[in-house]
């Protein structure tokens, strides 16, 4: 039995709460892409855990795997594990030996490339999280990456560093024309890198943390264990299916669950694939957002209200998120790309008590009506949303509604959810009405079917 959780918008849909909820019924939770650019907030009994690398399920004691499709910053990994241990948890995290390692120079390069793009006024900076994600995936594809397995073998590690680091240094000094005589120099020092990362390899080995991910998951699956694939980020920042170039460098969509963990597509496809939807939109970073609430002072005030109520500030970077109305063309694209069997709609409580409520059902572009997202940024940017105005609902007691079930939701909220489900032809499995895991109305538990 498997369950794949996918972000259906631009990341930050509240995947962590659902992974945590359903992951508790699973034996293994696997991340299959991305790295510490992700930000999962899990609230358990009033305690808040902000995780960027450790799979959310770890808060509930489920084995968490970082699959081969992930890029792993071991400094972040150990900081998070140590913090969780200090707070009395004992996370069991394993890392695929085929996963790539984010090295300090990748982070430096991420920053430099963004600065250069920002300086040339072409407006093509991506607004990355600065975690070195893109440069690490570039090196993976360029066959000069360092994998977790290399950290376990000091000689192999040195050989790889001696090949890669001078190229990186030349890129900074000769192509970008920057001096590396400041505090960034250490990130390009082979000896210092070797010392630190060989020691990290020793710790990974001592704690028995590395796995052959494909083999490990195959055995667990054969033994009848339930596996959750935890997607990070969202469909519209997928490097293939998202709003290129304002994307992350991996594939958050469901197909990557197979590639990024070494499990067959038939195994992933045999289980549920649940798209996580935020009841409105948020975006951190650059790129179009046709339904963005930024047209006039009233819209900006509404965006501020939703931002405050929904806590819409980046988990990783603290940046305020841009806010927009729910966009159904985006959801149609997501449902098709990943083959959603169900959706979970979060933050329904945040929309309570508004004066008006709009949903974008399609776009107008050059005299045409579109029901899905165009393939280029230029065309998407020029799309005019077609709105349907729906009834609003009053504030409600989230815990009481979560306990009483779906019918206890205000009628207008149920109509909103049913409208959404109908438009994308996908049933609602769960409704988030508050940040705590308990504040979820569950209609279908994928593991009970
Ligand atoms: P990167 O993944 O750091 O390279 O950033 C590329 C783009 O993806 C930027 O627009 C980021 O803001 C966005 N992004 C990356 N991770 C997340 C996430 O977990 N949530 C929302 N946006 C993200």
UniProtKB/TrEMBL annotation:
Molecular function via GO: adenylosuccinate synthase activity; GTP binding; magnesium ion binding
Pfam families given in the database record: Adenylsucc_synt
Residue numbers binding GTP: 11-17, 39-41, 321, 347-349, 432-434
Nucleus is among the record's keywords: no
Cofactor: Mg(2+)
Matching CDD domains: AdSS (cd03108)
PANTHER family: ADENYLOSUCCINATE SYNTHETASE (PTHR11846)
Name of the protein in its database record: Adenylosuccinate synthetase
């Amino acid at each position: 039995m498997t369950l794949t959780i996918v972000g259906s918008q631009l990341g930050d849909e509240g995947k962590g709460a659902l992974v945590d909820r359903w992951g508790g019924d699973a034996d293994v939770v696997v991340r299959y892409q991305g790295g510490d650019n992700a930000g999962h907030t899990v609230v358990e009994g009033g305690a808040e855990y902000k995780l960027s690398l450790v799979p959310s399920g770890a808060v509930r004691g489920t084995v968490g795997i970082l699959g081969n499709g992930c890029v792993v910053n071991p400094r972040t990994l150990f900081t998070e594990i140590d913090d969780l241990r200090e707070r009395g948890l004992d996370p069991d995290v394993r890392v695929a030996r085929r996963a790539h390692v984010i090295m300090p120079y990748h982070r430096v390069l991420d920053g430099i490339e963004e600065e250069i793009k920002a300086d040339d006024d072409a407006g093509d900076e991506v607004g990355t999280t600065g975690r070195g994600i893109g440069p690490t995936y570039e090196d993976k594809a360029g066959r000069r990456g360092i994998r977790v397995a290399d950290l376990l073998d000091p000689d192999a590690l040195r050989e790889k560093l001696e090949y890669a680091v001078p190229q990186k240094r030349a890129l900074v000094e000769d192509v970008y024309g920057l001096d590396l005589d400041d505090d960034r120099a250490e990130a390009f020092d082979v000896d210092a890198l070797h010392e630190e990362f060989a020691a990290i390899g020793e710790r990974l080995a001592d704690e028995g943390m590395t796995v052959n991910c494909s083999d490990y998951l195959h055995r667990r699956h054969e033994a009848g264990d339930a596996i959750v694939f935890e997607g990070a980020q969202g469909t519209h920042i997928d490097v293939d299916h998202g709003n290129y170039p304002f994307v992350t460098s991996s594939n958050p969509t469901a197909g990557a669950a197979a590639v990024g963990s070494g499990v067959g597509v038939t195994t992933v496809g045999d289980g549920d694939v649940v798209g996580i939807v935020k009841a409105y939109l948020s975006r951190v970073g650059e790129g179009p957002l046709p339904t963005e609430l930024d047209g006039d002072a009233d819209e900006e005030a509404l965006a501020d209200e939703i931002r405050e109520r929904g806590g819409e500030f980046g988990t990783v970077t603290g940046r305020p998120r841009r806010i927009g109305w729910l966009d159904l063309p985006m959801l149609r694209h997501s449902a098709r790309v990943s083959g959603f069997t169900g959706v979970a709609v979060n933050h329904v409580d945040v929309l309570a008590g508004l004066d008006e409520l709009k949903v974008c059902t399609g776009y107008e572009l050059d005299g045409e009506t579109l029901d899905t997202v165009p393939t280029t940024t230029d065309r998407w940017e020029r799309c005019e949303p077609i709105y349907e105005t729906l009834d609003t609902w009053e504030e409600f007691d989230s815990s009481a509604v979560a306990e009483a079930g779906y019918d206890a939701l205000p009628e207008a909220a149920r109509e909103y959810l049913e409208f959404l489900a109908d438009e994308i032809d996908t049933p609602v499995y769960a409704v988030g009405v508050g940040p705590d895991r308990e504040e979820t109305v569950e209609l279908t538990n994928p593991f009970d079917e």
